[in-house]
Amino acid sequence: MSDRPNPLDGLEEWIDRMNRQLETAARSWESELDNRSHLDLSMGGSSTQLDLADTGAEFVVTVDVPGYETDDLELRVRGETLEISGERDRELFEGDAEGEAAHSAGTYIRRERETRSFSRQVRLPEPVDIDAVTAGVNNGILTVRLPKREPTGDAHEIDIE
């Protein structure tokens, strides 16, 4: 036999080492996703970004909603989940046979603003007082204030059978 080294020597050890590293990386990625999505229950990606802040007495959710009017937005609290959705319709104008939209100032040369919609669901860390929730839109920013539910100090006696 020749004294030349076998090029496959050590290959099995190298593959095992790579498998261990990939498994470690996969666990790390799953952990990051679990932590990041703990409060965000939205399906798929969303271009609408939001902030959730805890001020002590209330949660404040701030959402960028440029171009949306108050009537375009819908808010709902279901259990401990805040659901925010919006749909903005494209302005409809009568057009010609090719579907070119006519504007009061003429025919559009370029039209990029179309129907946009979004839906976000955020799990609230604590129960809120649903009757005291307020919301408003100012300069394209939706602010939702969700006062925390006051903990009841009442004790309830439980009978043991």
What is the count of structural domains?
2
CATH-defined fold name of the largest domain: Immunoglobulin-like
Task: Give me the number of helical elements.
Answer: 1
Please indicate the percent range of residues in DSSP E strands (runs of 2 or more).
25-35%
What is the string of helix and strand elements? HEEEEEEEEE
Distance between the termini: 85 Å
Family: Belongs to the small heat shock protein (HSP20) family.
Protein name: Hsp20 family protein
Organism: Natronorubrum halalkaliphilum
Pfam families: HSP20
What is shown here, in short?
With 161 residues, this protein is α+β, with helices and mostly antiparallel strands.
What does the model show?
With 161 residues, this protein is of the alpha+beta class. It folds into two domains: 9-38; 39-147, Immunoglobulin-like (Sandwich), CATH 2.60.40.790. The chain has one helix and nine strands; from the N terminus they run αβββββββββ. The chain has one helix spanning 11-36, and strands spanning 50-54, 58-64, 73-78, 81-88, 102-103, 106-107, 116-123, 134-138, 141-147. A hairpin with a 2-residue loop joins strand 8 and strand 9. It starts with 10 loop residues before the first helix and ends in a 14-residue tail after the last strand.
